[in-house]
Write a structure and sequence with these properties.
alpha/beta; 9 strands; Rossmann fold; globular
């Protein structure tokens, strides 16, 4: 998925991580005395091996394995050592970072009118800051003012789920402005391009699904988004419906049960709550904790 959508026209090759989603031989590094990141740990038995980056702590051996297929429902992946594992989704970033100084982190979100940020995002930033020694900033695309430029290298992280104009145009423009201001910026792929993110979502959705479940997403323009949505529907094993098509779908399927694919509360989630839809993704405890773990692991 990342190979399709992280490589948008505005990307810089050095600013994006490689695809871990396609079947191929990969190296898994194993350790005997290491700690597994808590919120991500349950996913190891649910994700294809190639989607799980493993990083050494001490005395590693390397085993070549082959990934099986796309999707998040693999049941044949098992930990291959009696010891614990350390999951590090960011080995390439860690290789290029300074061991003595963490990256500052700026997360870009859509925001609501006037730059208002939902409370679940504000508290998420506070909790993440408690896990990191470097500054953690939040920038809303709807806000007029931007956070100050930190005095250290910066990771720019779009907390955006879809390969729309915000991810392909607006966030690269933010990166360019930061560089003009003298910042040393590395831009990560948008959140929706991360297989481990969708693994967290898939795990939570499996506990919610019932007959008639359908995933409802923000309306997107045709093009790149069509391929993205088609792959996501197959991976999550549920149909996807655009929010602007939801009323028609509901009329045609009286038993439809919507599951909103939105990170934080917005007009879509508020409307779907009227038909008892689940809360937005960041308000699911398992998803929230898993994402905190992933971002706390950033160098």
């Amino acid at each position: 998925m990342a190979s399709y959508f992280a490589n948008h026209p505005n990307r810089s090759g050095s600013d994006h991580l490689p695809d871990t989603f396609h079947g191929r031989d990969v190296s898994i590094q194993l350790a005997g005395n290491s700690r597994l990141v808590g919120g991500v740990a349950p996913l190891l038995d649910e994700l294809p091996i190639g989607m799980v980056p493993i990083r050494p702590a001490r005395q590693w051996s390397t085993i070549g394995v082959a990934t099986a297929r796309h999707g998040f429902d693999s049941g044949d992946t098992r930990v291959m050592t009696p010891g614990d594992l350390v999951v590090d989704p960011w080995p390439l970033l860690r290789n290029r970072s300074s061991a003595s100084q963490q990256f500052a982190l700026r997360m870009v979100v859509h925001g609501r009118s006037g730059g208002v940020v939902p409370a679940c995002l504000s508290s998420f930033v506070d909790d993440l800051q408690g896990k990191r020694s470097a500054p953690v900033q939040l920038q809303a695309l709807t806000a007029e003012e931007c956070p100050c430029v930190p005095d250290r290298p910066l990771l720019l992280l779009p907390l955006l789920l879809w390969p729309g104009a915000h991810a392909r145009t607006d966030v690269p423009a933010i990166r360019q402005r930061l560089r003009i201001d003298g910042a040393r910026v590395t831009m990560l792929p948008f959140l929706g391009a991360w297989p481990l993110w969708w693994g967290l979502v898939a795990s939570s959705i499996q506990r919610q699904r019932e007959p008639g479940s359908v995933l409802v997403h923000h309306p997107l323009r045709e093009g790149v988004a069509d391929r993205f949505l088609a792959m996501l529907s197959v991976s999550l094993n549920l149909p996807l419906v655009s929010f602007d098509c939801w009323p028609e779908h509901q009329t045609q399927h009286a038993d439809a049960r919507p599951i909103p694919l939105a990170l934080a509360p917005n007009r879509m989630t508020e409307s779907l709550r009227q038909v008892d839809a689940p809360p937005p993704l960041l308000e699911h405890p398992s998803i929230r904790e898993g994402l905190l773990d992933l971002l706390a692991c950033l160098p």
